[in-house]
Amino acid sequence: MAGILKEYGVHLKVDGKSPRTMESYLGDVQEFLDYLSLEGVYNAAVIQRQHVTAFRSQLLSRELKPATINKKVNSLACFCAWLHKEVAERFCKELAEERESLKNGDLKKWVNDPYTIYRTTFCSFSGYMV
After folding, report:
1. Measured distance CA(28)–CA(21) in Å, rounded
2. Which band of pLDDT confidence, cut at 50, 70 and 90, is reported for residue 105?
3. Which of 6, 84, 102 is nearest to 45 (CA)?
4. CA 102, 97, 41: angle at the middle one, nearest 5?
5. What is the DSSP letter of 96?
6. CA-CA 20 to 30 A from 89: which of 36, 60, 64, 97?
7. Looking at the whole model, is its pTM more than 0.85?
8. How far apart are CA 115 and CA 95, in angstroms?
9. 39: which DSSP letter?
10. What's the rounded Cα separation, in Å, for the pair 34 and 28?
11. CB atoms < 10 A from the CB of 113, how many?
């Protein structure tokens, strides 16, 4: 998940965050990603609210000050909002590319990839039409 942390750092810089803010956010997110890897979560796309809640509980057990915990949770909220948007945009871009390949007659790839069928069905039924 190191790649996603670098991408997030680029986002923070483009967003105009100060170097100290970036250092703080990235340190908090790195701590969270380290926690996730200890819990067996290695894909940032599957992060759920329960992971953040469990991380917060772990911070509480370390008897950190409430302000420190709140800062870390705020950093994660910003990261997760960015991650959600980033994953959704990539998902829809991939789907658009797959639909374009279908228009160009690449049916064999589509039929042989059940994940593509799942994503196309999911997006169609959940209103994410591209």
Report:
1. 11
2. low
3. 84
4. 120
5. H
6. 36
7. no
8. 11
9. T
10. 10
11. 12
